[in-house]
Amino acid sequence: MSVSSEHAPAPEAKAPEKGAAPSRWTTALRDMASSSATVIIFAILGALILAAVLIAAADPTVQKTAGYIFARPADFFKAVWDSVSGAYSALFRGAIYNPDAATFARKIKPITETLTAATPLIFAGLGLGIGFRSGIFNIGAQGQVVLGAVVSAYFGFAFNLPVVLHLIVAIIGGFLAGGLWAGIAGFLKARFGANEVIVTIMLNSIAGFLMSYLLTTTAFMRPGSNNPVSQRVADTAMFPKLLGQDFRLHWGFVLALLAAVAVWWLMERSVLGYRFRAVGFNPDAARTAGIKVERMYLYVMLVAGGLAGMGGVSQTLGTEGVLQEGVAGSIGFDAITVALLGRSRPAGIVGAAILFGALRAGSPLMQTDSNTPIDIVQVVQALVVLLIAAPPLVRAIFRLPVPLKEVAA
Amino acid sequence: MSTATALSPNSKSLEGTILPPISWKGPITYTVIGLIAIFGFGLTVGGGDETNFVLSASSDAIKFGTLVVPSRALSVAIGVLILAIAAFAAYGAAKRIRYGAWLPSLVGVLGIISFLVWSGAGKAESLPIPLLLSQGIIFAVPLAFGAMAGLINERVGIINIAIEGQLLAGAFTGAVVATLTGNPYLALLFAPIAGALVGVLLAFFSIKYKVDQIVVGVVLNVLVIGITGYLFSTVLKNNKGTLNTPPGLSKIEIPILSDIPIIGSVLFNQNILVYLMFAAVILLQFLLFRSRWGLRLRSVGEHPKAADTVGIKVNRTRWINVMIGGAVAGLGGVAFTVMQGIGFGKEMTSGKGYIALAAMILGRWNPNGALAAALLFGFAEALRGTLSIVGTPVPTQFLAMLPYLATIFAVAGLVGKVRAPAAEGKPYEK
Q1: Which of B130, B175, B286, B314 is placed for a possible disulfide with B344 were both Cys, Cβ 3.0 to 4.6 Å?
Q2: Which of A192, A195, A382 comes nearest B222 by C-beta?
Q3: Scanning every residue of chain A, which has its alpha carbon at the shortest distance from the alpha carbon of B397?
Q4: Do residues B28 and B93 make contact, with C-beta atoms less than 8 angstroms apart?
């Protein structure tokens, strides 16, 4: 989106009236500075700065030096710098590249961990993105992730199938489970006009209880164990590792990227996607044009839920290998922020998922290295999305120019 | 339709003959519940089984002994009674008579009694009714405040998904303030401020920057969970004694009333927050529908343009009431920490804000209804706790699902029509 605006400077007729028409370069620079990409970068920057305030405020050295800030301000600023740079450099070393590690494999392990953490977020984010673009606010990704995890894990350990087939069957099982779970909300919206926000929130909780019930049944539990942990998924149903056994990164990541391409094709090139978007833009107009709006709601939820279910699949068949409480973590909720940050576009969602995956992957090292609790990641995540959702606010904070078309309007 | 009325002179007489469609949902639902009571709860237990109920708390002035009832006979009797109500409702439906909320409530209470009888059938342990009720009320407090916060916001046209965050902020602030000052009542003053601050953020982004209200709500929840969790891990954990050991709210016994058997100690020997909850519901019900403030609030939520035309400042009304709503939810947050005298814990609201939202919808955006729904959910939670001790034929996870299922049914319109304020979720532009 932003790329096109760089290549095609606005014609001079569109420029503001007062004074001489600005040169092509001014216009191009202004376009760049006001583009949504710039807003996103500055929003991330703003969130990191705000979080840095929290990090510094909780640091004991900073608190101590703040006591005599007027006597020796340098101490205070050094303490602030130490605490913030310590936390963020640990985050970087945990998420991207660790120069302190002994071997090359260990050095690049952080970035593979980031991609591993991003995989379920890509799937679930793609699903939510489809919903958002079709005018459906699906908060239920969490429940769909849970159902996908439950069914794929069950297929993974209960069936006995040959290598490739077993994985495919388990994947399809998880996809269908997530899709059908979301389909409940889609059906209720289509048939009774039930608000999908409420229904999906309720379905999240129900899915959680369903999973904790299933984990107490003999069908799921390990024989002779009372722990709420399922049997291990058979090796035939596990995603193969992408970079060998030293890394947790699995082929689920590649599948997620393929899913992103597929979603792009669905939304931009297929008739069904066109209908989805039409319903999202204006349901009344879509209805007038002969699109069966109610049926589209159901289809959207089936596809979106299936993708979210794949998020659960990549957890059970890729990363964890078992079903247990917390296997879904907060993927479904994080995916909402991923989809919002990615503006519901596949490429944006992949980028956002990798960013949040990096925050996830880097936070444990940050906690051990610099005593900054993991919770700061949630703060950063929330702030990024809040700022991105309000571009005028970001522009006001960082004094970015307003896009020409908004000035004209 | 209006054009047809203008064209045809006969339309007046025609209008009288067009009747609203008969809604059979109520009678059908009641029949199903009645049949479940007879065949699911009544006939599945042994013929000689009995259920024990404890009716009096140990502190009651007038004590009853343990009530022993024959399980099968009582459940079947209740089932038959519910079927009779269903028949009555079917008669009413055919005549297009509308009954109030008392009919479904009655069926609900009867259904719960028959379920209790079934759960306790043939067990040596008794079901402690006063304990169940008083716990249910305690569990209902944050839900009721959260639901009231939600309905104030939604009635003014702003969807408040951030109830969860507001409760959490209130719980956190309440715990810290009460510990620092040693006075639990100050928590009741400061927790609303914390909730209102979350409300300020909600208003700032949704009114000023017109960001999608659901998005803001969801993200604010993440933000508050993050900030309180962060502060908990960095500050509270290491200074538990000085920052996170709040004194509890003590019980205040209302003389005479608290001596009423069974419900006396449940309703009239509670802490101040419970009394505040009841007072707030009554007050809000009155203000919302009988005061100038309420009329303005509702008009802004239903038709902002019309409100603007008569001189009501739409966005200012929204700002103020979003903050009031936040304060109400913040007060409810005290229930998690100070009310019970326990310290703050990470994400301790565990989704209660969303249940509060459900209670608001189930209560059809009315304070009375919201309280009833909150009590229902609170009772369901208390029941789950009790039954997991007494032992139950149903896995407790399924009991835990009940409030959520009830809400889905309500939203899907199976238990009557629910309608949200017309202008909710839409930013107002002149």
Answers
A1: B175
A2: A382
A3: A209
A4: no
ipTM associated with this complex: 0.84
| Assigned CATH for A111-371 | 1.10.3470
Q: Which of B200, B206, B214, B223 to mutate to test the interface with A (most CBs of A within 10 A)?
A: B223
Domain spans, chain A? 2-98+398-408, 111-371
Q: Are the beta carbons of B222 and A375 separated by less than 8 Å?
A: no
State CA B232 to chain mean position distance: 28
Q: Do both B101 and B171 map to the same domain?
A: no
Burial (Cβ within 10 Å: 0-12, 13-18, ≥19) of residue A77: middle
B214 inside 8 A of chain A by CB: yes
Task: Provide the whole-model pTM.
Answer: 0.86
Do B219 and A337 count as a contact with CB atoms less than 8 A apart? Answer: yes
Query: Cβ A199–B395 below 8 Å, yes or no?
Result: no
Co-location of B165 and B39 in the same domain: no
From residue A228, alpha-carbon distances to A223, A232, A327, B76 in Å are 12, 12, 12, 38
Mutate to test the interface with A, among B219, B223, B409 (most CBs of A within 10 A): B219
Tell me the C-alpha distance between B218 and A137, whole Å: 11
Distance from CA of B396 to the nearest CA of A (A): 8
Residue A201, min C-alpha distance to chain B (Å) = 7
Cα distances (angstroms) measured from residue A75 to each of A72, A88, A255, B22 = 6, 20, 51, 78
